[in-house]
Amino acid sequence: MLRLPDNFQHFDEERKEGFLEVYEYKKQGKKVVGIYCSYTPWELIYAAGAIPVSLCGGGSDTITFAETKLPSNLCPMVKSSFGAAASDNCPYFYFSDMVLAETTCDGKKKMYEMLGKLKPVHIMQLPPGRDSNMSLQFWYNEMVRAKEVIEETLGTTITEENLKAAIKLKNRERKAVLDFYKLGMLNPTPLSGYEMSTMVDATEYCFDIEENIKTLQQRTIKAKEEYETIYESKPKKPRILITGCPIGGVRDKIVARVEEMGADVVGLESCSGPREKKDLVDETKDPLWALAEKYLRVSCSVMSPNDERFEALDDFIHNYDVDGVIEVVLHACHTFAIEADMVKDYVMNEKNLPYICITTDYSETDSGQIDTRLEAFIEMIG
């Protein structure tokens, strides 16, 4: 029987609203599929007539619960995600009919095994590299298998017609997101990086993709008008690119603080930015093959080698007129931590730009130290 969790009355109003929104969709007979990563093909879920929703944890409030099952020295995003799901604090996991997961980092892989005791979980086996035809063929086979599992689990059929329609719809949303993020190219930018990233994150919890597209397009038009009438003549500020791990759980203590200190965060080279959005799905090819090609190009540090990330950095630095780069690494995120040294060398020695790496978690215990380092960094840029 469909019902709200037993602890529903103890939630804050925002979380209650999230539960009630999904509850209404479920009462209409809608299926919900939870996802955690940029490698997950949203289009397969839309084509199944279901609603995809992001489950990544971004708060510290569920970590204490998670640490009763997980080691304390694990990545905060993994702990937060597991804690929110296992404690029934995440409305989207609570009402999910299944989870479509992927083998990116080791922590998430093992977390998915534990989540499999709570929900049906299908784990797509991501190849560790993208440089060979074997990797693409392997990933295509995983797309085929994911389609079959979604059909079996949800009791539906994904037709080629519906999949092609979902690809076109998701491409339209990607274009809207990219146009929105390109506001950061304006100098000074009419929207803060905090507002841009928060608004794009919110689209992952809005189930009407057409409404998402409309909202993003309207806000982009309005911001361009504001730039011409208000912002264009304003003093310029240091222009900061943030790269590295997803910033959802550290947006307040890094992105917000950078902008409060007088700089503009003009770009996000991360999963919180256009990392997945910058490549569209080829609408002229076999849809499953086109999905495999597109999603294998996502430039996450779990890929080895990961040359595409440095191409993305080059594009950002050039097109967004970047003055300095801040790398965000979450504790125990080994692939980004190792890649950070390569990024530092690339930014400082090839691009001759200031660089700083902030290693942090979702707590507030290091906020003062981070403030001190950020203030010195922005002052150095001038």
From TrEMBL:
Keywords: Iron, Iron-sulfur, Lyase, Metal-binding. It comes from the Bacteria. One of its GO terms (molecular function) is lyase activity. Coiled coil: none annotated. Its cofactor is [4Fe-4S] cluster. Its EC number is 4.2.1.-. It holds the Pfam family HGD-D. It is an enzyme of class 4 (lyase). Belongs to the FldB/FldC dehydratase alpha/beta subunit family. This is (R)-phenyllactyl-CoA dehydratase beta subunit. It comes from Terrisporobacter petrolearius.
